[in-house]
Amino acid sequence: MEHLFADFDFDLLRSADFKEDSVREELVLPILKALGYSAHGENKIIRSKKLRHPFVTVGAKEVALTNFPDYLFQVDGKFAWVLDAKGPDEAITTGKNREQAFFYAIHPEINVPYFALCNGREFALFRVNKEDTVLYFSLSEIDGLRMLPLAL
C-alpha cells in the first residue's frame, strides 16, 4: 500500500465535479486492489447487488423497493463485508449513510458482520453489533498503513 495515492491531488475533493462515482473510481478501487480484491478469485468484489426489501408495505399495498450496495465482498466464497461509497462532503460515521450501510450488512440476502463507508476523505469500518468504528483513517494518510483482506 506504500504510496497508494502519491499522485492523487486531494484538493480535487473540494470540486463540485468530484462526486460519489469519482470517489469509487479514483480512491476506493485502488484500495480494494491493494487489499487483493477483484471481480474473481478468493477475495471477490460483487458490485451493485440488487437487494429487495423483504417486508415493505404501505397500508394494505405492497411496494417493491430495491437498494444496491456499491460493493459486496466475498472471502473464500462467503460474503464477508459491504462497502458503500459516498461523496466527499457526506458524513460516514453517523446518520443516514451509516444506517444505509448497516441495512445492507444485516439484509437477509447478505448478512455480514462488517460494513464500511468511504467518502474519499475518510474510511470507516464498523461491526454490526458495535457502535464505535473498528477501523478509521484519513485517506490522505493511507501511505504506510498495512492492510490485509478482511476475513470472517
Structure description:
The protein is built from 2 helices and 10 strands; from the N terminus they run αβββββββαβββ. The chain is of the alpha+beta class and about 150 residues long. The strands form 3 sheets. The chain has a 6-stranded mixed beta sheet with strand order 1-6-7-8-9-10. A two-stranded antiparallel ribbon has the order 2-5. The longest helix is centred in the N-terminal third of the chain and has 15 residues. The C terminus is likely disordered.
Produce a short descriptive summary.
With 152 residues, the protein is an alpha+beta fold. It has helices at residues 20-34, 96-106; strands at residues 43-47, 51-52, 57-58, 61-62, 66-67, 71-75, 78-85, 114-118, 122-127, 133-138.
Write the layout of secondary structure elements.
Elements: H1 20-34, E1 43-47, E2 51-52, E3 57-58, E4 61-62, E5 66-67, E6 71-75, E7 78-85, H2 96-106, E8 114-118, E9 122-127, E10 133-138
Parallel strand pairs: 7-8
Antiparallel strand pairs: 1-6, 2-5, 3-4, 6-7, 8-9, 9-10
